[in-house]
Amino acid sequence: MNYPLFIARRLSLSAGGKKKAPAVTVAVTAVALSVTVMLASVAIVLGFKQEIRDKVVGFNGHITLYVAPADQDDDNVISITPSLKKELSALTFVTDYSLQAAIPAILKTQSDFKGVYLKGLCGKTTTDFIESNLEEGEMADFSLPENKMKVVISRIAANQLGLKAGDKIDTYFISDDVRVRRLEIVGVFNSHFDQYDDVMVYGSLPLVQQLGQIGEDQGTYIQISTDDFDKIQDYTLQLQTALNTAVAEGRLFRLYRTDNVLNQGLGFFSWLSLLDTNVVVVLVLMMIVGCVTLVSGMLIIIIEKKRFIGIMKAMGAPTSKVSRIFVFLAVRIALWGLLIGNVVALGLLYVQEKTHMLPLDADSYYIDFVPVSISWVSIVLLNIGVMAVTYLVLILPSRFVSGISPAETMRYE
Fold it and tell me: Distance (Å, rounded) from C-alpha 335 to C-alpha 31?
């Protein structure tokens, strides 16, 4: 019979009466706070990574395909030919691809002007992303002819030029000659990514192709989405290899080069990698706080239960069994702390996920609220890890039981 566990489950943790002993209360509170902080740290970092990744992908896609110029005089216009479509469609990891084109432009009002790139909005990934960041107006279907002269501008451009949804703006395009188009602003977006928002305006792809004097199947690059962000580097290499093979075998007649979002957003992803270090530091510190408090609480409980220890030894219980009783008792306290910490943390994280009640400085963090991502795998692994570390740490203070003799405890008051 496993009587140490049986006794630990029924041993009172009160300091007299029904009130919990202060040492127990402090230990449970410390474990609960530590678990709450650890769960919140993991969820917030995962949320940051998800939000920043989605923003960078929204502007760049997963993989970008360019033409490889044969010489310095060759242009950078890419054509989405039937043979190229066939090669892209044959790759199982490619979920979507779209032709992209951008042209430099100048937005001019009576008192001010701003240089931007007008990008033809094409493809579900980018369209959905811009629409999710709209602050004003609506997203037009730029594939329709009646929306050819409409654009969506950023909040930065709107503030600098004093514009809003519904206004019209004279837009100058300079290449071999100067061309002017009066475009209607149907929406204002704000992604908080200033380096993109400051220069990007989205409109009709046919308009950009017309102004750039290229065909309807031509653009500056092809934006590709894949089925797994974590395999982008491998997918980029596979795509490049497949295209090179197609050229060598005569199925394609133009060399192409590839790039991906990990290279294009290197600064953002490097910043995110630093957050992993911060989380490790928080986890270690909170684990130390919880373990030290549990050990202190266990030593106090051992002192308070000194008479009980003496009686158990006098009845013939081995020291190892008595020590195990207090290990199980401390684990019982830790489980209460884990339960309370999980309930509090998950409750707060759920509210934050739904309401975004905690704000952030978007100028510093690219997001105007604290993002959270609740990963059940991370929660389970964290709880298992806390319990494992707690059990191992509690073995040491339980050894103090061996120094308590029955004769001494019988005289102890």
Answer: 9
Q: What stretch of H or E contains 178? A: strand 178-189
Is residue 220 within 8 Å of 101, Cβ to Cβ?
yes
Alpha carbons 399 and 21: distance in angstroms, whole number? 22
Tokens of 124: 């579900």
Integer Cα distance of 311 and 221 in angstroms: 82
Question: How many alpha carbons lie under 13 Å from residue 235 in its C-beta half-sphere?
Answer: 23
Query: How does DSSP classify residue 14?
Result: B
Instruction: Note the residue count of the chain.
Output: 413
Give me the helix-helix angle, 124-132 and 22-60, nearest 10°: 130
Which amino acid is located at 245 in the chain? T
CB atoms within 10 A of CB 7: 19
Do the Cβ atoms of 367 and 50 come closer than 8 Å?
no
Of 230, 339, 352, 278, nearest to 42 by C-alpha is 278
Cβ atoms of 364 and 56 closer than 8 Å: no
pTM greater than the 0.85 cutoff: no
In this predicted model, what pLDDT tens digit does every residue of 1-28 receive, in sequence order? 566 666 666 665 655 545 566 767 777 8
43 or 333: whose pLDDT is higher?
43
